[in-house]
Request: fold
Amino acid sequence: MDERLTELTVRELVEHLATKDPVPGGGSAAALAGAMGAALVRMVVELTLGRATSESAEVVGNIGSAAATLQSELLNLADLDANAYAAVAQARRLPHGTELETQTRDVQVAAAMREATRVPLQTIRAASAVLELAAQLAPLGSRHAISDVGVGASLASAAARGAALNVRINLPHLRDDELRTEASAMLETLLPELEEQERALGAMVEARMA
Reply:
């Protein structure tokens, strides 16, 4: 597709996801979920700042600034992910009838697969950072919007888990590659940390809603 995902309407984006065209796919959807999670964190920050004490206002404001940066990064990652997978598809279509063509194709596919793995790794990092911001905001944010903190956290968690799936499916294609080792190690530590964060934040949200 020629358009940037961020230039589409919500309806157009959802309809694009529903077609047989693999671009955009799950990686872009994961990044967009993370961006929405960051946006909800920002919303709760805005609802909180007018009522925050001077002591907590600075902390809450800093959370909002960080969330704005991550929101922008994740929106960009949605486009980067679509571009990365499009490059993989294009490389796989290269001719491979001769030995030279096969070698050229293999080099192009390998480079494209590296990028298609690197981008969701960035999404994992950014989405995990959004989840951490939601955890910081949960005890400080307006009680009237605490459910929105929970939704933002859920979206960030889904983004990280979704991006992790995209990394995992690419790992077998990264033969003799340092990125494969780095990505595998990251995924091994990610899920336990994610689960612990989700439990702690969920408990905080529930307690403040009670």
The mean pLDDT is 92. The helical segments are 10-17, 26-49, 54-92, 99-137, 146-170, 178-209. The radius of gyration is 19 Å.
